[in-house]
C-alpha cells in the first residue's frame, strides 16, 4: 500500500533552517511528483511547491522563492523540503503529498511534521 | 494567482441531511482541474474528488462533485457521523491554490 512517512517534529529558532523528509513506499517513486503543503495552527492549507521525482524539476510558490528548496533521493525514495531563514509565521504542520502528473491532484498524504519557530 | 472562495464558512446540519458546499474561482479553472479534500482534526487531508466530478478510490457515492469554469459544488447526499469535518477545494493548475475551507458541524 502507498505510504508517505515524514520525519519528526522540529523546534527551530528564528533565522535557522529546517529540512523535512518524506519517505515513500508502495509505488514506483519516479512515476509521480511530490508536493508540499503547510498548515499554520488553526488555519487553512497553503501550497508550497512540488518536485518531479522523475527529473527533479521544481515549481515553488512565489512567496517562498529563495527560501525553499525541494529535492529527492531516488535511491531511497525520499523527498526533502528545506526552508531557510525561518520566521515565527513559518510555524505550521508541513505535509508531503503524492501528485498525479504535471498538473494533478494529491491522492496520498504524509502524516505531517510540526515545525515550531520560536526564540 | 487563482483565488478560491468557499461558502459558507460553516454549515450546521444534522446527520441524514444534505450538504451543499460551494467553491468559486476568481478566474476559470482550466480543464476542470478542481479537487475536494476532507480534513478531520489532527489528520492529513483526504482526497475526495478530482477533475471536478470524479470520486477518488474508496470514496462513498454519497459524495459528488459538479461544476466547471468558475463555479464548483461538493454535495454530500446524506450526512453520516464521520462526515463532520472541514472541506477544502483546490485548483491544481500550474500554481495550485486552496480555498479557505468550509466546516461542516453537527447541528
Give me the oligomer status.
Answer: heterodimer
User: Considering DSSP H and I runs of 4 or more, what fraction of the residues of chain B is helical?
Assistant: under 10%
Ranges of chain B where pLDDT stays below 50 over 5 or more residues in a row are none
Strand content of chain B: over 45%
Provide the gyration radius of chain B in Å: 13 Å
Give the distance, in angstroms, between the N- and C-terminal Cα atoms of chain A: 40 Å
- Which class of secondary structure composition applies to the elements of chain B? mainly beta
| Biggest sheet architecture of chain B | 7 strands, mixed
Coarse shape of chain A: globular
Overall 3D shape of chain B: globular
Number of strands of chain B: 11
Distance N to C terminus of chain B:
35 Å
Class from secondary-structure proportions of chain A = mainly beta
Helices of chain A, by number, come to: 0
Mean pLDDT of chain B: 96
The chain pair forming the largest interface, with residue counts per chain, is: A-B, 21 and 26 residues
Provide an overview of this structure.
The complex is a heterodimer of chains A (119) and B (107). Chain A has 119 residues and is an all-beta fold. Helices cover 0% and strands 51% of the residues of chain A. Chain A contains no helices and eleven strands. The mean pLDDT of chain A is 96. The N and C termini of chain B lie far apart (35 Å). In chain B, strands 2, 4, 5, 6, 9, 10 and 11 form a seven-stranded mixed beta sheet that branches. With 107 residues, chain B is mainly β. Chain B is built from no helices and eleven strands. At the A-B interface, strand 10 of A face strand 4, strand 5 and strand 10 of B.
Amino acid at each position: 500500500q502507498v505510504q508517505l512517512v515524514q520525519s519528526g517534529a522540529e523546534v527551530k529558532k528564528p533565522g535557522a533552517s529546517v529540512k523535512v523528509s518524506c519517505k515513500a513506499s508502495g509505488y514506483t517513486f519516479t512515476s509521480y511528483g511530490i508536493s508540499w503543503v503547510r498548515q499554520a495552527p488553526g488555519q487553512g492549507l497553503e501550497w508550497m511547491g512540488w518536485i518531479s521525482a522523475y527529473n527533479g524539476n521544481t515549481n515553488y510558490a512565489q512567496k517562498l522563492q529563495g527560501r525553499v528548496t525541494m529535492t529527492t533521493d531516488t535511491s531511497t525514495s525520499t523527498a526533502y523540503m528545506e526552508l531557510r531563514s525561518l520566521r515565527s509565521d513559518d510555524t505550521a504542520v508541513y505535509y508531503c503529498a503524492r501528485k498525479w502528473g504535471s498538473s494533478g491532484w494529491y491522492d496520498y498524504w504524509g502524516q505531517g511534521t510540526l515545525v515550531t519557530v520560536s526564540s | 494567482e487563482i483565488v478560491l472562495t468557499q461558502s459558507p464558512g460553516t454549515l450546521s446540519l444534522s446527520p441524514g441531511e444534505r450538504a451543499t458546499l460551494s467553491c468559486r474561482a476568481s478566474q476559470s479553472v482550466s480543464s476542470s482541474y478542481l479537487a475536494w479534500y476532507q480534513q478531520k482534526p489532527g489528520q492529513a487531508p483526504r482526497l475526495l474528488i478530482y477533475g471536478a466530478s470524479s470520486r477518488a478510490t474508496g470514496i462513498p457515492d454519497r459524495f459528488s462533485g459538479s461544476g466547471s469554469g468558475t463555479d464548483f459544488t461538493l454535495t454530500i447526499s446524506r450526512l453520516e457521523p464521520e462526515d463532520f469535518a472541514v472541506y477544502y477545494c483546490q485548483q491544481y493548475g500550474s500554481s495550485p491554490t486552496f480555498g479557505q475551507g468550509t466546516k461542516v458541524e453537527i447541528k
